Amino acid sequence: MPELPEVEAVRRQLVALILDRTVERVRVHRRDVVRDPRGRRQGRLAGEQLGVDRVIRSIDRRGKQLIIEFDDDRGLVIRLGMSGRIESGDAKRRRSVPLHRHVAWTIAGGSDRPAIRMEFIDPRRFGGVHLFEGSEDRDQRVLRNLGPEATLIDGKALGERLKGSRRAIKAVLLDQQVLAGIGNIYADESLFRSGIRPDRPAVDLSALELERLARSIRTTLGLAIDAGGTTLRDHRLPDGSAGTFGSGHLAYGRSGQPCTRCQRPMTACVVAGRSTTWCESCQA
DNA sequence: AGGCTAACCTGGCAGC
DNA sequence: TGCTGCCAGGTTAGCC
Q1: Which of A41, A192, A240, A250 is deepest in the core (most CB within 10 A)?
Q2: What Rg, from alpha-carbon coordinates, does chain A have?
Q3: Strand B proximal to A124 Cβ, under 7 A
């Protein structure tokens, strides 16, 4: 589910809620969603590895991954996979426990504010929580092989990343080693906005087209972030609200519906093994 | 190199 | 109502 805009919207809410606060305790309800610093899903987990008694020093994002760092240089990389989400709220408030809640942190309150509950919920369990020991371990082991941030890409840099590949441009956009953050929704949206067919060999794009595509990527992601992302089903912001960018989709999920530019029906096909929607007359 | 498939999982929905 | 099959925001491994 969550691509860069969804994760970024989650990150922004978390910053407002828990940055610079102390982790009071953590409960792991499903051990195998957590990978320890050796990449294992089994074995003993000390609370301190998940931040207990540590101050949350930073909350960052790299591509689709959320990065929470503690004041002892350890931290977590949270991958939301297809159906993962972070839920956050007043720890004292009683409510029914969400289904598929795998990890729960309690963030200490103070005299002026309540303790906060932060939970990792993921029905399909394609996501997970990866523990790291320090910035070097984080970059070399957990976040390795990620391309540059899609929000920052320009035409020239995009061209350099493609390295003359003959792969379909959509396949390349989905490749996190080439560019970090784009998934199926925003690939279709960016290609539609730039008027480029999803199955064009990347190497065939002109400098002008690369510039247009890069600009479309930045614009699309920016609008989506501001809207809190796209909620198809599972995506929620930590406060429980839904992302509203779905109503701004021009391509994704609109197969058979009239193109917003030319009114002809949008076409569905499969590119890079993913369902793809595009307009045969507006995208060349 | 890269395309294709299956696998990892649960749940929602359409169709019968 | 209830069953079956298909589909889904992602990623990885294995095979040609």
Answers
A1: A192
A2: 20
A3: yes
